[in-house]
Each structure stands twice: as structure tokens, then as C-alpha cells.
Amino acid sequence: MTINDVVRADAVPETSWIERGGTPTAPGTGRLRPLGLREVILRPGFWQERQQTNQSASLAHIEHWLERAGWLGNFDAAVQDRLPAARRGREFADSEVYKLLEAMAWEYGRTGDERLDARLRAIVARVAAAQEPDGYLNTNFGRPGQQPRYSDLEWGHELYCYGHLIQAGVARARTSGHDELVQVALRAADHICDTFGPDGIASVCGHPEIEPALVEMYRVTGQRRYLDQARLFVERRGRQTLDDIEFGRAYFQDDIPVREAGVLRGHAVRAGYLAAGAVDVAVETGDTELLDALARQWRTTVARRTYLTGGMGSRHQDEAFGEDFSLPADRAYSETCAGIGSVMFSWRLLLAQGDPRYADLIERTLFNVIATSPSDDGTRFFYTNTLHQRVPGIDPPADALVPRAASSLRAPWFAVSCCPTNLARTFAALAAYLATTDDEGIQLHQYAAASLETTLPDGRGIGLEIDTEYPADGHIAIRIVRTPQAPWTLTLRIPHWTTDATIEVDGRLSPVSAGSVQIRRRFTAGEVIVLVLPVRARLTMPDPRIDAIRGCAAVERGPIVFCLESADLPSGVPLDTLSMNAATDLTERDGTVVATFHVKPADGDDWPYGGVVPTEPGASLPVPLLPYHRWARRGPSSMRVWIPVHDG
Amino acid sequence: MTINDVVRADAVPETSWIERGGTPTAPGTGRLRPLGLREVILRPGFWQERQQTNQSASLAHIEHWLERAGWLGNFDAAVQDRLPAARRGREFADSEVYKLLEAMAWEYGRTGDERLDARLRAIVARVAAAQEPDGYLNTNFGRPGQQPRYSDLEWGHELYCYGHLIQAGVARARTSGHDELVQVALRAADHICDTFGPDGIASVCGHPEIEPALVEMYRVTGQRRYLDQARLFVERRGRQTLDDIEFGRAYFQDDIPVREAGVLRGHAVRAGYLAAGAVDVAVETGDTELLDALARQWRTTVARRTYLTGGMGSRHQDEAFGEDFSLPADRAYSETCAGIGSVMFSWRLLLAQGDPRYADLIERTLFNVIATSPSDDGTRFFYTNTLHQRVPGIDPPADALVPRAASSLRAPWFAVSCCPTNLARTFAALAAYLATTDDEGIQLHQYAAASLETTLPDGRGIGLEIDTEYPADGHIAIRIVRTPQAPWTLTLRIPHWTTDATIEVDGRLSPVSAGSVQIRRRFTAGEVIVLVLPVRARLTMPDPRIDAIRGCAAVERGPIVFCLESADLPSGVPLDTLSMNAATDLTERDGTVVATFHVKPADGDDWPYGGVVPTEPGASLPVPLLPYHRWARRGPSSMRVWIPVHDG
């Protein structure tokens, strides 16, 4: 198939999206419909602060490092015939440039910032110049002195890089319309279909990502071949077309066909991206068997392989899920990108099926993984998000790459730097996760100060103002700014951790319980619906099958997981000498949660296995707890989420 | 310095060792003196069985695989100029050949088996042919198309391979005298001194092993330059001459100088070998500061970084020690070779200082790591020795390499196959660990059925017969077969787990407590000393700082750690539904330990973090426990050493 630019420019029909600011995920069918990034505007609060830091600091920080590390320069070197000698970075370095472009595209869609648009165009010009006539684009393969194209599907990441390129093209098409980036992405998509189609290379990429990207490009263009190709990739996966590796084929989910698997496994980011793309394929092809299989995998993964924070992946060695209930707090990997992959998967299932439990997990992951990673100034990041730091780490150098998981403190850039760019595109498009519509009305899934202005599918306009200090406070006021006269339904998610929640409609207070509440009525402009989700500190105990945290409890408050950080301890009191009474009172004062701990002197250096350990409690010590996402912001420290409990 | 074969042949003076069967470690000074492999003969029992299986099956199995995998063929390929194209195996494949040679040499020293000697000579001839005129010998470096010599000290393993070559030469010199293998090893040793001496490459190898090897070759030859070179390597270590790597320089102990470090860290095998070599250097140079530092590191490592089994190294990613008390049972790495490295370290400290705690750890490691690795027929091996197998693994193929740690069952050979050859040399020389002499008499450190026939340094001859079924039974009868008339001292180690031990001398029964007991008297031929170490099953609790096993207990009996294996459970009762009462009675019948467990039905697939977990015990179920070293011998299974306990 030849590329026809004129046809391709016409093949980007969704101009309506551009006015709405674009949305990352736009299924053609399903229980709920997403909103555009200009339909939900974050107002001052927890998430707006992070989105603004991303806009004002992280994007420039990332662009700076992509230049400095030479990963952007790889494209120039390709044009100037200086590869492979001049190439810098890992085999997937191209993808970080594409994720920055995607982040910039959403940010432009949301804000219309023309200077940002110019920066985006400048990068796109350098990328586009490196694309080969047949659509191939990768700075690491195919030139003299490099490995041949597609000669290392296990580790080469070529299709993975295309996936992020196409996602960037999708973001651009939905927020700006057809331009050079869209064109580059379309050429790449066609090249992939030509190369990996039914008569092409009958394999898959060692790192999924091309699957959701191709479906989204199908959604943008209506070009069925992209969907067919994505379906082919999903169907091929799990049939051992990739070589076996030391970690086993489960590492790249090539062990079991997607529709036959029972749980997510292997590399956690790969697993999440693949599952997200498979939902996309299932939705667009009406494949309910596949969709049901994915929903089942989600349930089992959440029940057996997910950290309290929502984090996924417990192993450092292969950045992978462990066995069921193998969820050690100590050295929990919980990669930031795996959290993003989990949100992508849950969001697609939520749109397809509407079950509020998907939004529950998104909330937990946003507040306790996504919010944990970046520094307050948006220029340092956690790659992994452990739940127990035994020994204070070192402060990574501000001017050097660090290995992906070397430190207990946030680092400016990594040799494997997937997380910063992944956060950037997520924060730029964050508002998309707050609300949806269906034929009946509006659904609020995440609570944040925000304005919502949209039209129902039948054309009726609705405007809401959401006023809240959530999650610090559970009082959520939803003011109806604009409403049709006819009745419609406002659906509010009631988080699974909720007790004693109430809703006040038209002056009437009603108790509501976990799940969701639907308010169907003739709303009037100016009226206020008040949802109260009491966010009291509570003790949480683990399933006894999670061996590594037996005998411990965690403190949560609303959706926020708390931790105990050494910075809050008197000097000379090591973290591992503290324990908590199972019936302890958690006191709250000015938003601070304080618990009383018992301190026992540490034992000496003898053989650490012996008879009965004395259990008498030590001296009492009240210590403030810290929201987990706030840890490691005061210098090197030790920290634990799960705290040993004793009786009496 | 040029090589002078005549001088070198004369430089192997210790012919006395040959009659005594050789010994792996022969310090020139220290508190205790080792015995030769023909001075202590194992009799039928726990260890003789394993030593015979090693002799009759493992050595041939290893030789077969070294041929089959092409690692022996690498030496032929070097001679025939077929490298690098024909090279097989990892960068350290040469070392496996050398470890087999060392094993064969000890075995020949012990048994005088001439057919084994011929096999050894045949392999040596192939190795020797590949040595270059200047003494360099490595099939992976230095030829056209290969990396230059010593261009990758971090990962190249060249000095590591030499270390094992020299150890093989030492074994040969001590058991057979000067021959081609000794000559090859001496040439290599000289080449190293020429290349890495004070004016040579000022660095170290990424994998320690050359250090103990050079000291031992000094002990064989009296050539001071070998000791000086070993000391130089020990002193250079920890001064960041190696490049930084993703795991950090602690991985190869190049982070902190040996005499300044407080604890073993990084790659556990590397740490053990380095520590062993550093003790050797300290002993031979009279460096008490260095020796004290190593003893301190040993104590801290044992108190904070050692599994109940004696196993060391908790991390899969870098095969490394974790932080203090980071000792998860689940996915415990506890590499077989790290156990061997720990025994090497402890044995050298025992010889230097005489403290019975070193022998305690050796015993624990022999029974629970070394004995766990090989299959009963000696042809399959554990590379790692986890303390908790959650899911039954798969049976590795009998005809293929497997990755080092992929399975829950023993495998015939590994891509990284250090453990089988390491076990082979250890089993061949095992009797050396049983006893020592000093000016006063004999010390028994490990208890096994054995005959001992030696002379004290002053020339007085002593013969003992040790009759015991230890560790199945704690009754140990020591018959004096030959004794001088003058008094001498018999010192017996009393293991640290002992309670109610007694010793009977001349009809008088005395209680003895953990540590050691010294019996100084005029012994008479025919008299029997009876030591009773009651080996009752007991519950062991962990230090509360070992988070991953909080709320659990283990069962031990004498030096043997027990486990609960799914093969002993009724079908339909998953391992993770069982718990044990903290005050449970352990009943013993015919050597079998049975405990009563409570079985709770597993919970469903909900969010696994919630309110208070109900603690009522479930149905009672008596289940036999299994010595840990016996696990995974009945097919794929799940297993745990640490068992959850509940009160009441």
C-alpha cells in the first residue's frame, strides 16, 4: 500500500475533538463516554497544582534532558548519517521524545499555548526528517553498523517506540488537527500494517504499546486496517512467537493468549499496556469474550497482586508482578509507569462497563503512585515507589543520569527514563479521568475542584462547578451551573473505603454506601448537591496471605495511604524499634494524623533466630504520620507504610 | 620475571601433604591446624552418602555437561584457532572446567583412584595446550575478534577464572605433587603477578577469587610474590578502581576498603570469596587489624544478613545481600555458591581464631544449604535455595540448560553453572571441616561417623573412631583408638542450639553448655567419650526486625531446619491456609516431626486490605514436617520454612 498524503489528511475527521481539547481514549462504543480536556477544567487544588507544575516545569525539564542526554540529537544524527557512532541512550530512547510530544500535544489542547505549540513543531521537524521513505523510523536499527530492522523483537522496542509515536500523533490530531506529526504517525502506522500484517512478520513486540496506539489511530481516522492490525497483535500475543528469555516468556506476556490468561503477570508496565490495548480491541470489535477475560484478569490482579497504594509489580529483577500475594513492602518495585499502565487499563474498563470499582483503583493509584513520583518542583522523579525504605538513601546528583531504581530520593533523569515522560502526558490529560457522560447524564468518578461544561449526546448542555478540598476534606459541593429542563441523572462514585457517607439533595440528607449513587431529577441552575465522604484516619489490615506484611497495619485516610517517616522521629529512635497497638487511637489535628507508638530498644548483634520474643511494649511516643505521597521530600530518610502491631 | 620450570618444580615442597591427602586451606599460622583428607575418613552416614554420590555420579555428570555444552571444547577451539566463532558458554565458562579439576584432584587425594587421575590428566592436557607463552589463559579474551585482555575487569572474570585454575593447581600439588596442572597454574600465577603487580594494572577483578587462590599457592610454594599480589588485590579493593555499574560498586565490594567495611554486602558469592581471601592475607601477613575487621564483618553479617538455613543473599536481581534484616523467605536467593563462600570464610576464621561460633555457622550451612542443593542421585542441583515456594514450579528438562534460578526443582545444568562444580569440590574435600589439631590436642568441629588418624605437632599419634547417626540422633560416641600416654586435650564443639547436653568421660556424666568443652586427661586406648546433644524438635522465632517473617515460627531439630511441603498436605488444602499455634506441641515419632496446624478456608477475590482480620482458628490438621534439605524431591510442590502462628 502506498501512502497518499491527500487521502490521509482527509482521514482525520474528528474536528469536533479539537474544540473539546482532545481526550486520550475515545472508544466508539461502551457504557460511558469520555469528555474532552476543555470540558473539564481543574480548579485550584491537589491536582491542579500538579498539572500546573507539569506545565510550567516538567515539560521544559524533560526537553532539556532529552537534548542534554542526546536522545533528541539521535534524530539529527540519523539525518546527518552519523549513526550508529553518534547514537546516545538505550534502545528505546526515541520513545521518550514521542511521549514528550504527546504530553505537549495534550497540554496545547488544554491550554492553547502557542509557544508550547512552536516547541512541539520544532521537535516534530527533527523527528520527521529522520523518517525513511517507507515510513520506518527508529534511530537504533537498520543502518549500516546497526542491527537490521526487526531483528530483535524481544528487546529492540521498535514497535513500542512506534506506539508512543502514534499516541503522540493521535494527541496531535485530536487537539490540533492534521499536521506533520500526524503525518509521521500515519506513515509509521501504515508501515507497521504493511510489515506485520497477515502476510508479514507473524510476531509481536517484546514491549506492548503499539496495540492501544493503533486502536486509537483507528478511532481518529476510521481506517479499519489499524484496528485489524491491533487485533492481530493481541491475538498473536501469548503464542510463543518471541524467543524464550531468562525471565520466561511471561515477562512479555507471550506465555498465554490474552483471552485465556487469568491474571496480569510478567513485566508490570508491559502487562498494563497490553491489557489496555486488548480492551480497546475488544470494545471496537464487539469481542465480549475478550472483554470478559480482561475484566476477570483485572479483578484477580487487584485482589492478589496489587499494593495498598495501587502499585503493581513487586520484583526488581524483571520489574514484574510476583506470584499471588507476593507483595513485599520492602523493595516493592511499584514502578511509576506500571501505575500509569494500571490507570490506562482501569479507565478503559470503566468506559466499557461502568463499574465504579475501576474508578476506585484509579483514585488509589493517582493519589498514592502518580502523586508520589514527582518532586514538588516537577524536576525530580521516583522510578520505583517502595512501601518500606530501610536505610536512608543518597541524594542523586542533579547533573547526571542515575540507574532506574538506585536511590531512595527522586532523581532528575534516568538511564531508563520512561517515568518522567509518562507522568508528563498523564498530568497533561488528567482532567479526562474526572467525569463521563452517557445517554442519561453525567458521571463523576474522581473528586477534585473543577468546572465541567459539556453536552449530553442528545445535545442538551450541562455545566457543573465542583467545589472541594478533597482529599484533605471529604466535603464535595456540586453546583449546577447550567442544566436542561428535562430530568437527567447525576451519578456519583462512592469510594469503596467509605463509611457514613451522606448526600444532600434539595435539602434532604440521605445516607449512601460504597459503589455509586444516582440522582435523577429536574435539576435547577444554582442548586448545590453536597456529597460528604468522611475521611477519618483508619487502620487497615492485610489479607493474611500477604506474608511479608503479616502482623502489621497501615493507616489510611480517605484515599490517602499514610506512612511513618524517620524525619518525624526524635533523633536516636530508629524506625524499626517502633510498633503500634492494634487498638490504637489515631488522633487528627489540623489535618495531621498522630498515632502513639511503642519504642523498644533494638537488640544486639546475636544470631537473630531464637526462642520466644518478649512482647512487653516499650515507652510510648506520639508521632505524626505522613501522606505516603509526601515522603522523601525532606532529605534522605527511612520510611514504612506497614507498621508492626502488638496486642494490649 | 621469566618462568623457570626447574625452579618451579622445586618450589612445591609440601610433599608431606600428599601422604595426608591434601587440604584445601593450609595457613602457615593460626589458632588451629587443618587435617588432610586421608587423616579424616567419613564412615557410612549423612555426609559419606553425599560424598560417595559426588564421587560416583556428580563428577561424571559435570564432565559430561562440560563436554556437551562445549565449555571444555573452548580450549580445543583456542588451540585450533577457531575462536571466537566456536566459543560456547558465558564469559566465565573456563572456571567450571577448573573447578571440576579441583574436585577431581581432591577426590584423587582422598581415594587414590587412578582412573579418575587419568581423566583429570586428559582434561589438563587440553587446558594446558591453550595456555599462551606468557602464561595468559582465557578462551574469551585477547584473540582477533575478541575483546582485548583485561579490557573488562568489571565483568570479564579473567582473574576469577585464574583463581579457580590456581585452586585446581593447589589441589593437585597437595594431592599428587608437581605435574602439568601445577605448572599451568604457576605460569598463570606468575603472569598475574607480572601484569597486576605494583607497577602493573592497578585494579582488581569484578569477581574476587584470585585472592584466596594466590595465598594458597604461596602456601604451597613459599613464593612470597603470590602473597604480596594477593595482599595488593585485597588492599586495592574498595577504592573504586572498577567502573560504577547499575547495582553500584558494592556489588563487587569495590565501594569500601576491606579493612574499613562493617558487614558483607553486594553479590554474596563475591563477598564470601573476598572475605575468605582477606583472612588468608591477614593470617599470612600478621595483619591483626584486618583480621579483626573481618571477624567483625562476620558477626554483623550473621546477626543481620543471614537466613535461618545459613543461606546468604536475599536478592534475585544482583544475587546480593539485602539491607540489614531484609531477609524475605519468599524468593530468598540463598545461592548454593554463597553458602560455599560462607563456609570458606567461616573456616578460615575458625582456623585463625578457634571460636566455635564459626563452626556453628558451617554446620548450619552444610546441613541446610549445601545438603539441599543436589538431588539424591547427584545429577541435579538447586542454584538458589528459597525458604518459601508459593507455587509449584516446573520440572526442568533433563537435556537442556536452564537459567540459573528459573525453577522450583533441581536442574541438571545451568547457563551459569557455578553451583554444581562448586559442590563437587566441596564434597570431595568435606572431611577437612570435621576436625583440627593444635599443640594441645584435637578439636572436633562437625559431628559425623568418621575415623580420624593423625599426629600432633609434637609427633604424638592419635586415632579416633566417631560413631554417630547425627543429625538424626544426638548420641556421639568417640572411641580412642590410639593415644599417647601423656595427657592431651580433646575439644568438642557444643552447638549454639543445644540445651541439656551431657558428656560422659570415664563413666562420669557432666552437663555441658553451648560453646565448647575441653577434656584434658591421660586417655587410654579403647575408652569411649560419649557426647549427647539432644536433638528435640523446637520452635524458633525470628528477630522482630526481620519484617518479612513477622508472626511466623520455624521448626528446627538439632542443626536441621524443617519445612512444610505441600506434598504432605491432603489434596485441596492449600499451603497458605495453614497456621500453627505458638504453643503447639511438636510430636516426634520414628524420627518424624508432626505438628498440628489450623486450616482456614481461603478468602475470596476482594480487595485484600481491610478492617480487622478474624483470628478464630480453623479445623485442626496434623501434618508431618520435612527436613528442609529434603524438599522438592517428590515433584513440584509449594513449601514454607516460616509458618504463621496464632495465639490460643
Lay out the secondary structure.
The structure is a homodimer of 648-residue chains.
Chain A: H1 5-10, H2 15-20, E1 33-34, E2 40-42, H3 46-68, H4 73-79, H5 93-111, H6 114-129, H7 158-175, H8 180-196, H9 210-221, H10 224-236, H11 268-285, H12 288-304, H13 336-353, H14 356-370, E3 388-389, H15 418-428, E4 435-437, E5 441-444, E6 450-455, E7 461-468, E8 475-482, E9 488-494, E10 501-505, E11 508-512, E12 515-521, E13 528-532, E14 537-542, E15 552-557, E16 560-565, E17 578-581, E18 587-589, E19 592-599, E20 609-610, E21 619-624, E22 626-627, E23 639-640, E24 643-646
Parallel strand pairs in A: 5-9, 17-24
Antiparallel strand pairs in A: 1-4, 2-6, 3-23, 4-5, 6-7, 7-8, 8-13, 9-12, 10-11, 10-13, 14-15, 15-16, 15-24, 16-22, 16-23, 17-19, 18-19, 19-21
What this model shows, in words?
The structure is a homodimer of 648-residue chains. Chain A is of the alpha+beta class and 648 residues long. In chain A, the strands form three sheets. In chain A, strands 3, 14, 15, 16, 17, 18, 19, 21, 22, 23 and 24 form an eleven-stranded mixed sheet that branches. In chain A, strands 2-6-7-8-13-10-11 form a seven-stranded antiparallel sheet, with no helix packed on it. In chain A, strands 1-4-5-9-12 form a five-stranded mixed sheet, covered by helices on one side. In chain A, α5 (93-111) runs parallel beside α15, α9 (210-221) runs antiparallel to α10 and α9 packs parallel to α11 (268-285). The model of chain A is unreliable at 1-10 (pLDDT under 50). The longest helix of chain A is centred in the first third of the chain and has 23 residues, at 46-68. The first copy, chain A, contains 15 helices and 24 strands. Chain A is globular. Chains A and B meet through α12, β14 and β20 of A and α12, β14 and β20 of B. β20 of chain A pairs antiparallel with β14 (537-542) of chain B.
